[in-house]
Design brief:
By secondary structure, this protein is an alpha/beta fold. The protein has two domains: about 1-85 and about 290-465, Endonuclease Chain A (Endonuclease, Chain A), CATH 3.30.870.10; about 90-270, 2-Layer Sandwich (Endonuclease, Chain A), CATH 3.30.870. It is built from 16 helices and 22 strands. It has helices at about 1-15, 25-35, 50-60, 65-80, 95-105, 125-135, 155-165, 255-270, 305-315, 330-340, 355-365, 365-370, 405-410, 420-435, 445, 450-465; strands at about 40, 45, 80-90, 110-115, 140-145, 170, 190, 195-200, 200-205, 240-245, 245-250, 290-295, 320-325, 325, 345-350, 375-380, 385, 390, 395-400, 405, 410-420, 440. The strands form three sheets. The protein has an 18-stranded mixed sheet that branches. Strands 10-17 form a two-stranded parallel ribbon. α2 crosses α4, α4 (about 65-80) runs antiparallel to α9 and α11 packs across α16 (about 450-465).
Length: about 475
């Protein structure tokens, strides 16, 4: 699925030759710019310094990572404040996530804003589209942004039917230059975000697209079931694999930050005005989670990249990463190696099967230095890994659409939610341990015995890693 889309981008981008570069991220410089106390906002606005101090002390008093300092560093690097008063629910794999999203859509009263990379015309896509059209006919304003490369091969008639049903549609950066509006034809810049915002009060984001690929669940939590109702379809063997992914459902003021990202993308694509709806209304607190919503875009401020690198640099105890497409730039690689060498427990859960052979082998080209530095690498079995999550020291967690590769950091519009605190961190660590149980460890001794053909594939793929 990803392979064909990657090939289109590579061929279109080859003529550009000039390569963009990522910024240097230096924790010491960030510390020099950081405020003594990070900014925290809630539904009523900015919290006072005293209230902020009390909130941070209460939630992170026992953390090995200095979360107050970390929050201030991220704010200095990204310019984005923390948002208090949210409820954040982890969702795993397609069936559970789709059920929650469709439930929220069905209950919508005012508007639905949906942004996705892939929106396939298959059984799940038809079901999702039909529900959106139904809500539009009920008087709910429905706006959809879909990526033009992510939907390459999807018949235009599929989108025309939604348009005929009243849904407002925006193809992001059309493949056809004649259809480009606004800032010119930029095929290499893609919208990789996955966001659903309902009534400005409920938001979803993570790694899950709209595709039948997600109709089967992975073996994740197969021992304990799916938490109620009928069990989702599960992979039964290597020829029948489900997709392992992670999403989050958010209620509270942070949803308004997601709303702004959606509106900003709509405006920047020089689209027609959004129809009137209650997009920005005051949202009451819904929980106790403190989060930061980061949206990055090409030629932007690299917010997600900076936040991730700063967290890795400041890690004291553990860095646990689950990543579908892992092709790190040199700075990310060096920071992971440095963390392992200073005694941090660095563990990676990576794919054993992938929908992109180039990306798969390019990622494996980095195994040797990582293993030699003491990083533990595991490959997930019986699933196509598509999750993009990180948990550091058990208290700094992020879930989103961003892979650890140059494409995500340089050329894609992405969105990640950072959740601060040990309660959510524990949920993330439990999920990571479950993935470990479903994975096989790659040891240095085993890796050194890999065939010459495998080494050749890694070398060839590495040549293309900038464009992947």
């Amino acid at each position: 699925m990803r392979a064909n889309r990657v090939l289109v981008i590579i061929l279109a981008s080859w003529s550009l030759l000039a390569c963009a570069s990522l910024p240097e991220v230096d924790a010491e410089r960030a510390k020099a710019r950081a405020a003594a106390t990070p900014e925290v906002v809630n539904a009523a606005g900015k919290l006072s310094r005293q209230t902020t101090e009390q909130l941070l002390k209460k939630r992170w008093a026992k953390s090995t990572l200095d979360m107050k300092a970390q929050a201030a560093l991220e704010e200095a690097a990204t310019g984005v404040p923390l948002i208090a008063g949210n409820k954040v629910q982890l969702l795993f794999d397609g069936p559970q996530t789709m059920a929650e999203m469709m439930k929220a859509i069905a209950a919508a009263k005012d508007h639905i804003n949906f942004e996705t990379y892939i929106f396939d015309q298959d059984e799940l896509g038809e079901q999702f589209a039909e529900l959106l059209v139904q809500k539009q006919r009920e008087g709910v304003v429905v706006n959809v942004i879909y990526d033009s490369v992510g939907t390459l091969g999807v018949p235009q008639e599929f989108f025309d039917r939604m348009k005929a049903g009243g849904v407002k549609l925006l193809p992001f950066n059309p493949v056809n230059p004649a259809k480009t509006r606004g800032n010119g034809w930029k095929l290499n810049n893609r919208d990789h975000r996955k966001m659903l915002i309902v009534d400005g009060k409920i938001g979803f984001t993570g790694g899950i697209n709209i595709s039948d690929s997600y109709s089967k669940s992975s073996p994740f939590r197969s021992r304990s079931g799916s938490g109620g109702g009928s069990a989702p379809a599960r992979a039964k063997g290597e020829t029948d694999v489900g997709w392992r992914d992670t999403h989050v459902r958010i209620e509270g003021p942070a949803v308004q930050a997601m709303q702004w990202l959606f509106v900003q993308t709509w405006i920047e694509q020089d689209a027609d005005d959004l129809r009137d709806a209650k997009y920005f209304q005051q949202v009451a607190p819904a929980g106790d989670k403190v989060v930061r919503v980061l949206g990055s875009r090409p030629e932007g401020r690299y917010e997600i990249y900076k936040a991730l690198l700063l967290a890795i640099q400041e890690a004291k105890k553990s860095i646990h990463i689950t990543c579908a497409y892992f092709v790190p730039d040199d700075q990310t690689l060096q920071e992971l190696l440095a963390a392992a060498r200073r005694g941090v427990d660095v563990q990676l859960v990576l794919p054993s099967v992938s929908d992109s052979g180039l990306v798969f082998h390019a990622g494996r080209a980095f195994y040797q230095p990582l293993l030699e530095a003491g990083v533990k690498i595991y490959e997930l079995k019986l699933s196509v890994l598509h999750a993009k999550t990180v948990v550091i020291d058990g208290v700094w967690s992020t879930v989103g659409s961003t892979n650890i590769d140059r494409r995500s950091f340089l050329h894609n519009s992405e969105v990640n939610v950072i959740v601060m605190g040990d309660a959510f961190g524990l949920e993330m660590e439990n999920a990571f341990r479950e993935d470990l149980r479903n994975s096989t460890e790659v040891t240095l001794a085993k890796w050194n015995k890999r065939p010459a053909l495998t080494r050749l594939k890694e070398w060839l793929a590495r040549v293309w890693d900038y464009w992947l």
